[in-house]
Amino acid sequence: MIDAKNVEGLAGIVAGQTAISTVGKEGVGLTYRGYSVEDLAREATFEEVAYLLIDGALPSRTQLEDYRHKLMSLRTLPDKLKTVLEQLPAGTHPMDVLRTGCSALGAFEPESAARGQVDIADRLLALFPSILLYWLHFQNNGARIDTASDAPGTAWHFLELLGGEAPSDLDERALDVALILYAEHEFNASTFTCRTIASTLADFYSAVTGGIGALRGPLHGGANESAMQLMQKFHTPDQAEQGLLEMLARKDLIMGFGHRVYKSSDPRSEVIKPWANKLAEAHADQCLMPVAERLEAVMRREKNIFPNLDFYSAPLFHFLDIPTSLFTPLFVIARITGWSAHIFEQRAHNRLIRPTAEYIGPPPRPFVPLAKR
Ligand SMILES: CC(C)(COP(=O)(O)OP(=O)(O)OC[C@H]1O[C@@H](n2cnc3c(N)ncnc32)[C@H](O)[C@@H]1OP(=O)(O)O)[C@@H](O)C(=O)NCCC(=O)NCCS
After folding, report:
1. What is the extent of the structural domain holding 292?
2. What is the model's pLDDT at position 302?
């Protein structure tokens, strides 16, 4: 019999090959196509990283300009998709809005010989902020916003649609860095879902729609929303310490901490935290970051568990005036790049993903007809 602990959650199982990223490999924490995420977050923009993931190589200046212009030209929603978004009931979770928006777009603009996978990847990257924020404004006050924009990048476009004005350089760059960090992460649950669906030769939209569904849960993308809710429960670091100790005594899972692959730290957390601190300073924050840092210190002291990307991205998004329910959708807006790269890679070397299970049910037995039960 297989040791159940070893196979649960496929922990440590190599489930395929990839040339897109490495996670937790010795020496370097996270790389995209061979470049360290620290270098990319310091030197590159999100669109350069998106191009790198999707195309396989860094763009030249001209290629990047062309790519930005292509994305700009794809930000307008089809009227029929606006109608679908307007029908969604009040209280719909924004992740369900993106999932439905993606699926509906697959019906209005299906994959075909004329509309190939690269065009769809670009369209989804350009359109996800439009889908989300068109719906948000319509839901909040019945406004039908124009999502077309010549904003140079995704972060700018998102913040401009959300707040109605161009963002400051600091805000735009902070979100840009967060998008870079969220762009790709090897065979995580949502990416593996995309690859599994792609392996059946289903269309591109089906694979991405499934990925959004997998990302929604609090053990994966939903953790950033839960981390925010945790931090907001407390008004002082001492209160946070007390509350966290009580949660640990109850054996609660603390969202935004721990990781399946990283063992001592999440390299993305080291990059995002200074950006959260910069925004905290700009907002003269006296509460949220001190509370967050105390939670981090207590988790290290009591459990030797470190914050993952979702922990400090929560205050960062909060300081950008982003509603908490949009935190996980922002993950989708970034991760569509990694998902796309993985769908391309799966398709290029496809074999149906179909593992086997160890059977632990009853042994073979005679069927008992209904009349005799
Ligand atoms: C990410 C996560 C799912 C990884 O899970 P995993 O690889 O299956 O790790 P395990 O559940 O085996 O954890 C090992 C031990 O650490 C504990 N642990 C791990 N993460 C924890 C957390 N966030 N809070 C409290 N305890 C945690 C587990 O309870 C377990 O303790 P035990 O050995 O006494 O049972 C897990 O750390 C988690 O649920 N984190 C919170 C959700 C989150 O932030 N998700 C985003 C990930 S980027």
Report:
1. 223-319
2. 97
